[in-house]
Structures are given as C-alpha cells and as structure tokens.
Amino acid sequence: MSYEGESSWLIEVDPMPLYEKNTPTGPGNTHRTGTLHMASVSTGLSEDGDNSPDTSAPLDGKKSMQEYITEISQLNSAIDEFSKIIQTLALFKYYIRNRKGNTNVEELHKRFNTFSVKCANKVRMIQQHVNTVNRDNHYAMSHREKLGFSYSDLRARFNMQDASVNRLKTLMETYQSVIKEYTAAAKTIDDASQAATGANSAPAPAAAVTVAQSLPECNEEALIDELKSKSKDIMALEKNAKDLNQLFTELNMTIKKRGENIYNLEQQILLSAEQIDKGKEDMAIALKARCGQVLNWVMARRKTPDDCHKRLLALEDLCKEFFKKHANLPENVKQLQKHVLSEYTEWYEVLTEITEKLKEVEDAEKVNFLGQYTFEPLYEADKILRTFQKHNLQIVSYCQLLQKHVTYNVPSIKKSIETVNREVLLACHCLPSSQLLDFKNRKADSTRKLNSGTTELRNRLKVYGIDLDEFPFNKDFKVHIKVRLIEAIVNKNANATIENYRRTVELAQLICSEILPVFVSFIRLHGMDDLYAAGDTMANIKQAAESGMAVVTSDGSKGDSDEKPEQGEDASSDCVIQLVKDNDQIPLDEGKRKQIFDTNLGNPAFRQLVMGEVMELRTFVKVRIDEMQNRSDSANYLFSQAGDKINACVQTPVSKYEAYLKTLDEAVELLSGTEAMKALSLLKNRNELDKFAQVELDIFNRCCNEIEEQASLTKRIETTSDALQKLAAELETARATVRSTKAKLEKTAGDVMGEPLRIFGEVDEI
C-alpha cells in the first residue's frame, strides 16, 4: 500500500557498452573503436503508481526529527552532486554536437563513459538514502503514538521527502534525455564515418589510379584520412547549422515568452506597489489584527525569537526562585510574593514594580565599574527585566494572558452565570422562555399557604380547647401538641360517650313508659303471651332504663349476667379483658373510665341486646304506621272483649306513632351509630387514637413544611444572589484585565514594530 509523500523506486544500472563502432583495418579485419558504455537507468516506477517500500528491509528503530533532517540533508547533498554530474554530461553532448575536425571522438566517448559510471554509482547511493528515508517514515507512521509524533510532524516528514523525490525525478528525466541525445549524436558520427569509408573503397578513375600508383603508399593513407576528416567536418557543419537554426528558434520563443513574463511582472509590481501604498495608509490609521496573530506577526519580523515560549517559561521560573532565594526583602516587595501562587502571572509588570521598589533601598545606589547594581536582589531583578526587554518577551506574556482570559476565563464565568440562572428556572419548574415563577414568587405562594393553613388549624384546635399561639410551628413542638391534642380528644369523646349513655337511659325510660305498653297491649290482644312472657318482655330496655348508668361490680356483674341470656356471658367477659388490655395507654380519667366501660351500657353485649329489642319495637311501630296510613279499614279493630285501657292504647293516632319512631331512631343512633362507635373506638384503641390525632395534625405538619420551604427559599435566594454578584464581579474583573492587557499589548507591540496596532476579534466580544 502506498501513501502520499512515499517514494520507493529501484535504480537499475546496466554497465554493458551501449554503443560500439567497428572500423575495418584491412581486408577481412575490423577494429573496434569508440566503445561507449552507457548506464541504463530506471526509476522502477510502475505504470500503476505502485511504489511500496521493501517490507523485508529491517527497521532502524526510533529516530528523532533532527536525525531525520540530517538524513534528508545527506539525500539532498547526493542529489546536488548528481545534478553536477548531469551538467557535466550535458557539456559532453554539446561538445560532440559542435566538435571540430581534429576532435578525438574516441577520447570523448571514454570520458563520457567515465562520467556515466560515476553517475550510476551516485544513483545507487541515492537509492540507499531514499530507502532509509522510506523506512524511517514507515516506522514513524506505524509507531506515531509511541514516538510522540503529531500528524503535523508526519506531514512535515513526508513533505521533505516529496520535495527531494520530485527533484530527483526531474534530474533522472534530464539524465535519460542527455544519454539519449548523446547516443544519437554518436550514432550519426559513426554512420557518416562508415559511409565515407565505403566511398573511398570504390573503383577510382584511371587518372586517379595513375596518381595513386605514383604516390607512395604512406601518402595514400594520409590522403584517405584527410578526406574522411573533411567529410566529417562538412557533416558536422551541416548538423551545427541545423542545431543553430533550432537554437535560434528556441531562443526567439524564449525571448518572446520572457518578454510577456516581464510585462506581466511589471503589471504585478505596479499593482503590488499600489496595494503596498494603500496598506501603509491603512496601517497608519490602525493595524487590525486578532490577538492570536499578534505574536505571529512579531515573530515573523524577527522581533521575538522562535523559542520565545520556552524562554518565557525559564524567566517565570527565575521570577519564582527570586522570592525563595532572597528572604530578606523589604516588606513592600514581599507583598508581591502572592503572585507566585497565582494560576498565571504577568511577570513583566511585577518585575518592573519590584525593581522600582528595590531602587528605593539605600544599597541600591551602589554600582560597580561596569555600571551594574551591587545590591544582589536589585541586580537579579534588573537582569531578568533586561532579558524580558531584550527579546520582547513581555509581548509573549501579554498575548498568553490575553488569550487565557478571552478563551478560558471569561467564557467559563459566563457559563457559570448561565448555569446558575438555569438552576433557578429548573427549581421553579418552569421553562426559560415562560418565566412564570422565580424564587420570590414561590416564597409568596408559600406564605399564602401558611396563612390559610394556620387559620384552618386554629379553628380545629379551638374545638378541643387548645390555643395555637402556645405552640409555634416547629417540629420540636410537634410531640407536645400531639400529647395535648390526644388528651383533648380523649376528654371530648369521653364526655360525648357519657352524655350518649345518659341520653340512652332517658330514651329507654321513655320507651318503657309510652311505647312498651302499646306493644304489650298488642301481644295480649292477639294472644301471644306464650311467645312474650309478661315479665320478660323487653327486659333489657327496662334494665337500661333502671340501671343503665350504674357501675357494675364483680358481684353485681355476676348477678346481672344471671338475669341475661347465657349467650352474652362469654362475649361480655372477653370484651372486658380486651378493653383493659387496650386501654392502658390512653390518658383517660379513672372516674370517666368506669362510667364508660364498667356500666351496663358500657358492656358491648348488653348494648347489643338492647339494640335488638329497640329494633324490634321500631319494626312494630313502622308496621303499625303503614297499616294506619295505607290499610285503615283492616286497621280498625273491634275490641269488644277488651277493656277500655287496652282499647285506648291500641287506638293511638298516627302522629303519636311517628313520634315513637323518631325516639327509636335516636336510640338506635346512640347505641350503634357511627359517631358513638367512633368515640368508643378512640377510647379503647391507642392506634386509632394516634391516627385520628395525626390526621388533625396534618395541617400542622404542612405549616411546618411551608416554614421550612420559606427558609430554604430565602437561603437559596440569598445564595443565588451572592453567587451571581460574585460571578458578576469576577466577570467585570476579567474584563478590566482584558482591556488593560489589550492596551498594554497594543502599545508594546506597536512600539516594537514601529507601527500603530489595534487588536480586534474575540477580545471585543467579552
């Protein structure tokens, strides 16, 4: 696989003679002269462009960029020598084309072959250098991360190789062209020599034969040689004339092209001069440059060294060591030691201030014969400051400080401000575009909820006789108010239960005096005495009316249980045991507890029996009302055999029955109604009592939460405000630093360059 910038080509040298001339020396004999050994050179570049390196060649290992540059320099030196040899071969081509009659062609061929062999050897040497460069580049590309090379370093390596290889390709083409032209010229000379030899060997006229016979044999050979040389001179003159004609034609074309190029160059020079004048005018107004390009501009004019960053780092280390080395500095100088711990310090201004303050010391006035300060701290500070000024490193420091603030500090502070504002909006559960709420609106809403909750809680606690002002909204008072509330709930329900028992006794007495005689009259009227004994009819209601609120002792409870049905005995004892067990943790007064749980109505079984009898009487009354309202004919009974008393009770009007029904409904509600059962449940079960109290205290908890929310919102408002103020102060400080540094950089760089400077770009957007 080939890569851009890669060059791998093979140079093949053929040392065999390319041209030989056979000169006849006599009948049947030939003499080989003018042997021309040409080097056949090939770059080895295939038509498809495959120039892959020889993968079998071993890698030389890691090479630094400096070693690579050295190798490239050796390659370029070899190419330069190769170019000089080609120039020499081109001179041979000129000599053979423009030779004179007495030119020794064979000697010319020998020398040409000598330089051709040198050229072939040089090509082999260049091949070795190119292979080495290829291996180095492949190694660097495959081990880039290990060697610590960046892609720009690899690009630079391949660019240097490309430049050398392209130059070498051009020289190889020139070399092949010179070889080809010289070979063609030598072949032309050989053909002309053979033609002249054939013409001299043809039959001569008689006069010529006579003259030839009369001349000595040596004069004949000399004449033949002279004729040959003359014919060669004539052919050479003709060839030179053609070459000169072609040369003049090419020269005219070159002169014409150069004339056009000169005209274009003149136009470009004039245009460039106008642009330069305009640029000078613009620069006189203001030189606009981005802050990142100022340093490049100064370095391009050689006002600052290329390694200015390294020099600045070294000076910064010297500045930090200055405070460590000199401990006995004046107090006004020691105060500047804080810059050592800063993230980034512009040391030029600090050193200037240090130097000015050290000059105020008494020892600062002493100097040696060279004019240097003898006071060591001042001498070292002045030395570092002079180094700054010598290489204009303060420009580098200003650029770094400006770049740091513009690129990092100011955007970071702005991002922090946006983050704080975004957190505020998210905390308010609103979109940034809507801006429905903020912390202050939430605090006002919380205050409104607190006021409404306080009013509702005050009304609820007022029912239990508790003053809310005695308990501030604090979770520490939650236990106290709960204990107070439980006591109030127990007392309220205990009083309500006792009052219910008393009202039940009153209703039982009313039932026994008014409703029960009517019911007994109907029993006797219909002859149902076998079902309802006269003494046992509605016995539980009678007992409730007589002793419903009486406290039952152990003996009394036993005696009472004997009068009650047997099925209620076990249920009553179990209930009393469960009651005592569950009632231990309820803050109930002992007297009230006995009235509620140790009376007949406090016994659930007895209350259930009374409830059954009341429901039976209620059914009787409802049926009687229905008969009298809807079936009045069948309701008229004849009581001829009955006495007047029975007849009067049975014939009670409907309005009276309706009053009886209301009394019975009230009794049912007192015995098994929701409110009555709930009150008893709260007095018996601690868990139910706690749940009920917790429900009443939910508003108190909500009010406490609202107060905490207000405190949290107040704190967040203060924290957010402080954070925004702090970030705004940091942003303003950074902006002031940027403006100050920008002004210093413009002035310093402008003074160094001798031209006014104005920086624009990102620095204007902070």
From TrEMBL:
UniProtKB keywords: Coiled coil
Gene3D superfamilies with a match to the protein in the record: 1.20.58.70
Transmembrane residue ranges: none
Biological process terms in GO annotation: regulation of mitotic cell cycle; vesicle-mediated transport
Keyword Coiled coil in annotation: yes
Ranges for region Disordered: 42-61, 550-572
Coiled coil regions, renumbered to chain: 220-254, 717-748
Assigned GO CC terms: endomembrane system; membrane
Stretches with biased composition (Basic and acidic residues): 557-567
Superkingdom of source: Eukaryota
SUPFAM superfamilies per the UniProt record, alphabetical: t-snare proteins (SSF47661)
The family this protein is said to belong to: Belongs to the CDK5RAP3 family.
Protein name as it appears in the record: CDK5 regulatory subunit-associated 3
The organism's taxonomic lineage, starting at the top: Eukaryota, Sar, Alveolata, Apicomplexa, Aconoidasida
